[in-house]
Every structure is written in structure tokens, then in C-alpha cells.
Write a structure and sequence with these properties.
It is built from 11 helices and 47 strands. The chain has 3 domains: about 190 residues, no CATH class; about 160 residues, no CATH class; about 240 residues, YwqG-like (Hypothetical protein YwqG fold), CATH 2.30.320.10. The chain starts with a strand and ends with a strand. The radius of gyration is 27 Å and the shape is globular. By secondary structure, it is mainly beta.
Length: about 625
């Protein structure tokens, strides 16, 4: 049996740090017995440690735990968390002293913290505590809070959960059953704050010393509101802002707000929505989600991407790569007497003099003076007398691409998603475990040649891409990979009378158009193979940014380069799956299928990639195509 706990650091500024474990617990799970495996303590400004476990946890009655167990076994009998040994172990711990960890914890300023407890056993609960004095200032169930403030939730959204998204200086963004609101702690109670602000579901939020910052994901626009309730609303779009998700953080004691987008561009903004600094860190990253933590004085920013972590000195425009200092997720601790394994997911945050990490309850500080620093790259490269090396490589990197855009189905067109396969007579349908596979996509290669003649595919016949489905109509395994796939090239074109029915999914037409994504991202294998220096890679990223201000587009694509998700390079994955000694840079995209109403690929609306090696493509050999998924 194995459990995972998130370790969490709440920076209380001059009041020190709150270190605790938190647990995300869905509606069909029993909370872990926190007293056995969790912790919560306050580390004051002098480094002394004070127990705050009782303050930061809540007791659950034995009756409530027993009722939840019975309901879970009746409602979710086949769920692994219910049918396996995990629940049995938790049942053995269900004594009268059962204690639950919070699901979220955040700073409210002045040594106070906001704790949110999931409502899977007891009611969903919000609690405000004074960490320094070890007292509960107020607590209220989500139902009581909604009734007091007149918040009405649609029936179908009830029981979707209670989530804390951001907090600071007495304010918090909270979602109550998918209803997003701003709250203010008045000293005795939580009240609605700034009711004129709408569209919070699309806004990332951070609270600085005197201002609330809202960053809209759909537009990239920044709005700045004075927390005191008086003063002008300011709105603007900083020079380097772009659409989409970005990590955000604001300083507690000054008016600075930092954001980092998936290309690795970090921008610091003041309360007038004006850019203070814009820079890039090295080594460069692409398609990485950033988690940001900024020191209360606004000088140091801890930026954590998928592969790397940097401490950034904003004032000096310098950064230090601190990967080797960050705690790693180690093998789970084993409790011999119970057979339970607990995996702790470490935490870190920026301080006024450096940064701090938390790993298995141990806090470790790293002063900025102990680190090696280098100048960060500017967001925009300076003009140079000689052209950068990457420009000489662009033509060798360029791979023509075709966008496959869904359109109205026309029976006389052979390019389409789903429906029937136009196979010549006596051509058998691909099968998996004795069952015909599902047609995902059929491409008329004559139409491809007329759209982009240099794409590298044969100029006649058709390509058909298939996937296997199980009896429930699912095309993915439990690991979110395709059960089986097949690519079939038929040089001859069949008549409509010879069509085979491969699926009962309705056909959808395809409109072919040239796709501009004919160049690789900075972390693609073909780019990395040239070992360009960091400044050249950054200049190439700037070139891509100028070409695609909103980032490289996704969607269905034939040829070209794949859309990279989570710093994941499909060429490297294809080489690893093929395991035939051929280098990653020789693998290229054959077809990319985005998630749609028929199939969700990977996790959270990802992509299905069909990759082919350039040697096989030159021979029109589609027998060794590698297919796999990736999610956001």
C-alpha cells in the first residue's frame, strides 16, 4: 500500500514559516489518518520549531467515518481505492481519534493562515488560524458560508469541491462548488470582496502589498485593483504578455507581480501594469508549466519548471540554476508495523535572502550569497552584426506541414475522420484480438500532393490510420496509451462501392491547408543535436515568439513538427519505443490527432502522435510507425 502526501510551505514573512502536509482527497476517497503520517509545525523567525498539528487538522467522528466507508463500498465497489488493501488499512485506523489533514493552506498575512478541509467525510470547512498565538480565529462550513452570504449554487455543481486558488494580505480566491469568488477576512469573519470583479474562472490571481492582480488566460491582459477598495482600476497588456496559462506570484510587502509563460519568458510587473523586467533563464525551456514563488520584499523569484528550477535576482537581472539543491521525490518511507508506504512530495519557496525547501518535514535554507550567479538572457535578443548560427540551419530544419481542419463531410471527398475506409477489394481490415480496428483518419494523398507537394509522402493512393477499441469503446489502456494502432497505405484508390465499414462513428470531413508549424521547438531532438549555445537557443526562441506571438498552435496535423506538451519530445519517445539503434533526430511526425468529441487522447485532452523514421518514409514503409499519447 502506498499513499502520497503533499508537503506545503506557507511563507508568513517576518513571522516565519508554516510547514505542513496537505492531502487532496476526492469525493470517493477516505482521508488519510493524519496523526499517523502527517505533520504541521511553525518555524519562527529565529528558527525555533513549534507544534501546530492540532491547529491545522480536524477530528472526524467515528460515526461519520463509518458511514463514509459504507457508502464508498456500496457506490464504488470496483474502484481500486475501495476494492484494494488501502481502504482496509484505513478502516483499521478508524478510531474515535480520526484526524484529517487540510486540502489547501494559504497565507493571509499578519501570521494568519487559511485552511480548507475537503468535505468527503465531514462538511467542507474553511478555517482561519493565527499561527503565532496557536488559536482558531474563525471557522465555517461551506454550506453555512453560502447561506450567510446568499451564494446560490446550481444543483448539478453541488459537491464539486472547495478549492483555495490564491491568498494574501487578508484576501483569498476560493471556488465553492465551481463558483469562483474573492473573499476578505475582516478579522473575525470571511466576507465577499470586490463584488464588481467577474470572470474569475478565467483569471489567475495574486495579492501584493496593496493590490490585487488578475491575469486573464484568454487575453493575457493584466488588471490591477487596490485592495483598500479606493483608487483607480488599472488595466493593460504588458509588452511580452501572451494568452494561455502562466505561473503567477506577487510579493507580500511591495507591489510586484511576476508571471512566467510556457516558453520560459519571465516578466515582473508593477501595480500600474507596467513591465519592470522581462528575461529568460538558461537552459531554455519550452512548453513548461511554471510554479512561481516570490519573496516578500520582491527581490527573489523561485521559478520551477518541469525539469529545472532557478532562483532569480530580479533587481540584478541574474539567475542561479539550483536543480542540485532541490529536494527529490525519494522512495516512499515504509512503516514496518503496518506495511504502509508514504511518499512525500516536497515543497519550496523564495525568501527575502534566498530560498528554502521542505522535504519529509525537514526545512533547509539556501542564502542567495551561497549560490553561483550568471546574467539572465534578455527577453528580446540584441541586434548583432553577424547573423546567428541558427538562421543557417532553418532550411535544413524546415518540414512542410498540412493542417487537417474538421469540416462538413462530403461523400465524394476521400479525406475524412472516422466513418468508412476506402479500401480496394479483398483488402482486409486491420484487426486486434480478432476485432476490426476503428478508422481514425483517412487521407487522400493526391490531395496532399496538391496542397504541399514537398511533404515527403507518396503522391497517390491513401493513408488510413486505425486504433483498437475495447468492449467499452475505449481506445486507451490504463496507462493512457493506445491499445493498438495500425497505419495502412493503399496505392490504389477504391470505388465507393468497395468501402468497408470499420466503425459506427459518424464520418467528419477534412479540409487540408498549409500549416505554418514547419519548424521545431527549441527542445526538439533535431535542434538539440546541434548543441547551440544558450544565447543562440534563446534567440531562436525569440524568432519563434515573433512568428507565433500566442505560442505554437496545436490541432490535427500531417507532417511538420508535433505540438510539444510538458517538455515532451515525441521524437525521443519514438526512438525509445522502436529501440532499434536509430537516433531520435531521424524520427519525424507523420500524423498528430488532437482530442475531440470522439476520443480524448492521453490525459486531460492531449494528443495522439504517429511517428515515422525518415528512412522508412523515403521507402514508403509504414509498418514500423510508432504511436503514443501525451496529455497536458
Amino acid at each position: 500500500m502506498q499513499f502520497a502526501l503533499h508537503e506545503h510551505l506557507v511563507n508568513l514573512g517576518s513571522h516565519g514559516l508554516l510547514a505542513l502536509t496537505t492531502e487532496f482527497c476526492g469525493t470517493c476517497a477516505l482521508p488519510l489518518p493524519a496523526r499517523n503520517i502527517g505533520y504541521a509545525y511553525w518555524r519562527d523567525g529565529d528558527g525555533r520549531q513549534h507544534d501546530r498539528f492540532d491547529l491545522c487538522s480536524r477530528s472526524l467522528s467515528h460515526e461519520a467515518v463509518t458511514r463514509t466507508i459504507t457508502k464508498m463500498r456500496d457506490t464504488y465497489p470496483n474502484l481500486p481505492a475501495v476494492a484494494g488493501d488501502k481502504l482496509n488499512w484505513q478502516v483499521d485506523q478508524a478510531t474515535a481519534n480520526y484526524v484529517q489533514l487540510p486540502q489547501h493552506a494559504g497565507d493571509l498575512g499578519q501570521g494568519r493562515a487559511l485552511l480548507v478541509f475537503a468535505g468527503n467525510v465531514g462538511p467542507a470547512l474553511l478555517r482561519v488560524v493565527d499561527i503565532v498565538t496557536n488559536t482558531v480565529l474563525t471557522e465555517e462550513t461551506a454550506d453555512d458560508l453560502m447561506q450567510r452570504l446568499g451564494i446560490h449554487i446550481r444543483d448539478y455543481l453541488l459537491d464539486t469541491g472547495l478549492f483555495l486558488y490564491a491568498s494574501g494580505n487578508g484576501f483569498a480566491k476560493i471556488a465553492i462548488h465551481a463558483d469562483f469568488r474573492l473573499f476578505r477576512f475582516t478579522g473575525t469573519i470571511l466576507e465577499l470582496a470586490l463584488p464588481d470583479i467577474d470572470n474569475l474562472v478565467r483569471d489567475d490571481v495574486a495579492f501584493s502589498a496593496t493590490h490585487l492582480y488578475l491575469r486573464n488566460r484568454e487575453t493575457g491582459q493584466i488588471r490591477s485593483f487596490p485592495l483598500a477598495g479606493s483608487g483607480d482600476l488599472l488595466a493593460g497588456k504588458p509588452r511580452h504578455a501572451r494568452k494561455g496559462y502562466a505561473g503567477i506570484a506577487a510579493a507580500a510587502n511591495v507591489d510586484r507581480f511576476a508571471t512566467a509563460d510556457h516558453s520560459g519568458l519571465i516578466e515582473v510587473i508593477d501595480n500600474g501594469c507596467t513591465s519592470i523586467a522581462a528575461l529568460r533563464v538558461t537552459p531554455p525551456v519550452h512548453r513548461s508549466q511554471f510554479a512561481l514563488s516570490i519573496s516578500p520584499n520582491g527581490r527573489y523569484l523561485l521559478a520551477m519548471a518541469w525539469e529545472h528550477t532557478w532562483l532569480i535576482d530580479i533587481d540584478r537581472r541574474a539567475h542561479s540554476l539550483v536543480d542540485h539543491l532541490m529536494p527529490r521525490e525519494e522512495a516512499p518511507l515504509h512503516q514496518e508495523e503496518t506495511g504502509v508506504k508514504v511518499r512525500f512530495l516536497p515543497a519550496s519557496c523564495a525568501l527575502d535572502d534566498g530560498f528554502v525547501t521542505l522535504n519529509q518535514g525537514r526545512v533547509q535554507s539556501f542564502p542567495a550569497t551561497s549560490l553561483e550567479w550568471q546574467a539572465a538572457l534578455p527577453a528580446k535578443a540584441a541586434k548583432r552584426t553577424q547573423p546567428p548560427v541558427y538562421k543557417a540551419l532553418l532550411e535544413t530544419w524546415r518540414r512542410p506541414a498540412i493542417a487537417l481542419r474538421p469540416s462538413k463531410y462530403k461523400p465524394d471527398r476521400r479525406s475524412h475522420f472516422y466513418g468508412h475506409a476506402d479500401l480496394p477489394p479483398d483488402t482486409p481490415l486491420p484487426e486486434h484480438n480478432g476485432k476490426p480496428m476503428t478508422l481514425l483518419c483517412q487521407i487522400d494523398l493526391a490531395e496532399v500532393a496538391a496542397t504541399a507537394a514537398d511533404i515527403g509522402l507518396p503522391d497517390h493512393g491513401q493513408l488510413a490510420f486505425y486504433a483498437a477499441e475495447n468492449d467499452e469503446g475505449e481506445a486507451l489502456t490504463d496507462d493512457f496509451e493506445p491499445i493498438a494502432t495500425h497505419v495502412l497505405w493503399t496505392p490504389e484508390v477504391a470505388t465507393s462501392a468497395a468501402r468497408h465499414l470499420a466503425t459506427n462513428r459518424k464520418p467528419q470531413g477534412i479540409r487540408l491547408a498549409k500549416d505554418r508549424t514547419d519548424l521545431p521547438a527549441i527542445d526538439a531532438a533535431v535542434v538539440q543535436a546541434h548543441l547551440l549555445p544558450d544565447n543562440e537557443v534563446a534567440e531562436y526562441q525569440n524568432f519563434l515568439d515573433s512568428r507565433f506571438p500566442e505560442g505554437l498552435p496545436s490541432g490535427h496535423r500531417l507532417g511538420g513538427y508535433p505540438t510539444l506538451l510538458q517538455s515532451f519530445d515525441p521524437a525521443k519517445q519514438a526512438a525509445a519505443l522502436a529501440n532499434d539503434g536509430r537516433e531520435a533526430r531521424g524520427w519525424r511526425l507523420l500524423l498528430q490527432i488532437d482530442s475531440d468529441d470522439e476520443f480524448m487522447w492521453g490525459t486531460d485532452t492531449g494528443m495522439l502522435y504517429f511517428m515515422i523514421h525518415e528512412e522508412d518514409l523515403a521507402r514508403a514503409d509504414f509498418s514500423r510507425v510508432q504511436a503514443f499519447c501525451e496529455g497536458y
